[in-house]
Design goal:
The protein is α/β, with parallel strands linked by helices. Helix content is 42%, strand content 14%. The protein has an 8-stranded parallel beta barrel with strand order 1-2-3-4-7-8-9-10, surrounded by 5 helices. It has a two-stranded antiparallel ribbon with strand order 5-6. Strand 5 and strand 6 form a beta hairpin. 44% of the residues are buried.
C-alpha cells in the first residue's frame, strides 16, 4: 500500500510537498475547487519543478470546468516538466460544482469526457461540441503522442464504478475502499493521536475538525433533513437555511476541508472524531490492515488544521514498516 497526501493549491504547497517527498510520500494530490483554492495545474507545475521524485496529481478534476483540450494540454505541460510523475482523477464534482450553485455532473458527461481525453492524448482527432479538435502542438511544446498517464475515476456508486472499470486505470473513493481494482485510492482525513489525547483535546479538534465538518456539508447536500441526526445538526441546518437561497450554497461549504468557519467551530461535534481517519498509531495501523484486505492500494491522506507538517510526519510514522 502506498501513502500519498492531499494538499491545497496555495502559497505553501511547494514547501509542504518537499517535506512529503523527504518523508517518502508517493504522490502529492491537489484539489480542483476554484471558489475555495488556487489553480491545481499551476500548483502541480510548481511542485514538479521544486521536487525530484514525488508524483503529482489532481484529485479530482471536474470536466465542466475546462474544455477537454485544455485539460489535455495541461497534462502535456506537466508531463513534459516531470515525465512519468503525473496522474489525474476525474469525477462528477462536489465543492467545485456546488460552490458554483450547480449539482454534480451526470455520469454520462464524465464518461464522454474521459473517453475524449484519452483519444486526444493518443493524438487522435475528436469531435467536441460539434467541432473537430486535436493536439497539434509542435514537437518542442509537448511530449510526443501518445501521452500515457494514469487516469483514475472518482466514484463510489454503481454508475461511477462502471465508468472506472471501463475507462479508468483505477478508482478514487471516499468512505471505504472499492474491491476489484489494481489501483484503489481512498481519500482520508483525520489526525494521529498522541499518548493521552482524545476527542476533547483542542489540538485534535483543530486538526480533525475540518474533516468532521465535511460530514455536515455532505449530509446537507444529500438531504438537508439528514443533518438533524448529527450532534448539533438541527441548529447547524437552521443557521444555514436562514441564509437566502441564492447565497446558501456558498455558506454550506465555507472553509471546506481547510479550516473551521465560525459556524462549524461552534456546532460541529467532537463526537464525530471516530468518523474520520483518526486514532492512535496502533488503531490506525489496524484500520489500514482492514483497508488493505478490502482492496486498498493507496491511502490519500489529507492533512488538515494549522500544523500540516506535524500531520504529515505523524502519518508517515504510522506507515513505517507497514
Amino acid at each position: 500500500m502506498d501513502l500519498s497526501c492531499g494538499l491545497f493549491p496555495g502559497p505553501r504547497i511547494v514547501e509542504q510537498a518537499k517535506l512529503a517527498e523527504r518523508l517518502g510520500y508517493k504522490r502529492v494530490w491537489t484539489y480542483d475547487s476554484p471558489a475555495l483554492c488556487g489553480d491545481p495545474w499551476i500548483a502541480m507545475a510548481r511542485v514538479a519543478e521544486a521536487t525530484q521524485r514525488i508524483g503529482v496529481g489532481a484529485a479530482v478534476l471536474i470536466p465542466s470546468l475546462r474544455h477537454v483540450l485544455v485539460t489535455a494540454s495541461a497534462i502535456a505541460t506537466v508531463e513534459q516538466l516531470a515525465p512519468g510523475r503525473l496522474a489525474v482523477a476525474l469525477g462528477t464534482g462536489f465543492t467545485g460544482r456546488r460552490l458554483l450553485g450547480k449539482s454534480p455532473l451526470a455520469w454520462r458527461h464524465v464518461e464522454r469526457y474521459v473517453a475524449e481525453l484519452r483519444a486526444l492524448l493518443r493524438g487522435e482527432e475528436v469531435v467536441v461540441d460539434g467541432a473537430t479538435t486535436k493536439m497539434i502542438h509542435p514537437d518542442d511544446l509537448a511530449p510526443p503522442r501518445p501521452i500515457e498517464i494514469p487516469i483514475l475515476v472518482a466514484a463510489n456508486g454503481p454508475k461511477g464504478l462502471a465508468v472506472a472499470r471501463s475507462l479508468g486505470d483505477g478508482v478514487m473513493c471516499v468512505t471505504a475502499p472499492q474491491p476489484g481494482f489494481d489501483w484503489c485510492a481512498l481519500l482520508a482525513f483525520g489526525t494521529v493521536l498522541d499518548d493521552g489525547e482524545d476527542a476533547s483535546s483542542p489540538r485534535v479538534f483543530e486538526a480533525a475538525g475540518p474533516g468532521m465538518a465535511v460530514i455536515y456539508h455532505g449530509a446537507y447536500e444529500a438531504s438537508p433533513e439528514a443533518v438533524d441526526a448529527l450532534p448539533g445538526g438541527a441548529e447547524w441546518r437552521a443557521e444555514i437555511e436562514a441564509i437566502p437561497r441564492p447565497r446558501r450554497h456558498l455558506a454550506v461549504h465555507e472553509g471546506h476541508m481547510y479550516e473551521l468557519c465560525e459556524r462549524d467551530r461552534r456546532l460541529v461535534s467532537p463526537q464525530l472524531l471516530s468518523a474520520t481517519f483518526s486514532g492512535d498509531r496502533a488503531e490506525l495501523r489496524d484500520r489500514l490492515e482492514r483497508y488493505r484486505a478490502a482492496g486498498l492500494t493507496e491511502l490519500l491522506y489529507a492533512p488538515l488544521g494549522p500544523d500540516i507538517e506535524r500531520e504529515l510526519r505523524a502519518m508517515q510514522e504510522v506507515f513505517e514498516g507497514f
